[in-house]
């Protein structure tokens, strides 16, 4: 996700020699693993195709063939993600829907995890916003610390890179209950946000929207340390 004004990628690009390459970094969505306390859905997403790209909107359908068994997991949902660039707003909206193709009622939860790149986490600030627009500055967690849970009232996070003046705001639908955590990378060059929706039951063959959020970019006057 490139900021055209600066040429910087606001999402972290993984290096080929790091653990998890090429699945590390960037932006990901996934279903939690079985037994993690959030979902018993046991769902994995394996592959995807872009259906269409019209007027700044791209839809992609992501699933495994029905009944496919990869790493011991069978496909139970079909996930459709719609990415929309807001004209003139420097913002990307993401809507993710899942269709239950398991043949029965499915308990399901979903997560999104953007890894936002910064010049240095020591020169980055974080602010939390609630649905009333109240803004609160909070310190980033220490590097190597475990992910820190943010207040339930949080509906948006502003990550300010003081070295470049680039501000990334990740906002979530306030009608969408979930759990939000933040982690500062030990490498000191990116911040990981993880948003987990609460489990819901999806009847067979039903399709529901499980995630709505927006990533917006602005530039502020640089205010780095002297």
Structure description:
- The chain is an all-beta fold and 226 residues long.
- The chain contains no helices and 20 strands.
Strand content bin: over 45%
Structural class: mainly beta
Strand order of the largest sheet: 4-5-8-9-20-16-15-12-13
Output the helix-strand order. EEEEEEEEEEEEEEEEEEEE
Taking pLDDT < 50 over at least 5 consecutive residues as the criterion, the unreliable ranges are 34-53, 64-72
Shape: globular
Rg, please?
18 Å
- What's the CATH architecture name? Distorted Sandwich
What number is the mean pLDDT? 78
CATH level 1 class label? Mainly Beta
CATH third-level topology: Beta-galactosidase, Chain A, domain 5
Assembly context of the chains: single chain
Write down the domain tally.
Answer: 1
The biggest sheet amounts to: 9 strands, antiparallel
Please, how many helices? 0
Helix content: under 10%
End-to-end CA span: 29 Å
Can you count the beta strands?
A: 20
């Amino acid at each position: 996700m490139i900021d055209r004004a600066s040429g910087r990628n606001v999402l972290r690009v993984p290096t080929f020699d790091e653990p998890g390459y090429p699945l590390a970094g960037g932006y990901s969505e996934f279903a939690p693993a079985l037994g993690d306390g959030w979902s018993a859905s046991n769902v994995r997403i394996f592959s995807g195709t872009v259906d269409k790209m019209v007027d700044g909107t791209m839809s992609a359908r992501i699933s495994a063939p029905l009944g496919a068994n990869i790493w011991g997991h069978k496909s139970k949902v079909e996930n459709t993600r719609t990415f929309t660039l807001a004209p003139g707003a420097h913002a990307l909206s993401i809507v993710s829907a899942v269709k239950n193709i398991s043949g029965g009622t499915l308990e399901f939860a979903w997560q999104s995890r953007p890894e936002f790149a910064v010049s240095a986490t020591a020169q980055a600030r974080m602010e939390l916003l609630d649905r009333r627009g109240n803004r609160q500055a909070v310190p980033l967690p220490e590097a190597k610390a475990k992910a820190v849970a943010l207040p339930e009232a949080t509906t948006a996070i502003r990550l300010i890179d003081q070295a470049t003046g680039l501000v990334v705001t990740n906002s979530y639908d306030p009608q969408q209950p979930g759990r939000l955590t933040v982690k500062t990378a030990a490498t000191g060059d990116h911040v990981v946000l993880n948003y987990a929706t609460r489990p819901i039951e999806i009847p067979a063959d039903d399709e529901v929207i499980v995630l709505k959020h927006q990533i917006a970019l602005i530039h502020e006057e640089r205010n780095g340390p002297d």
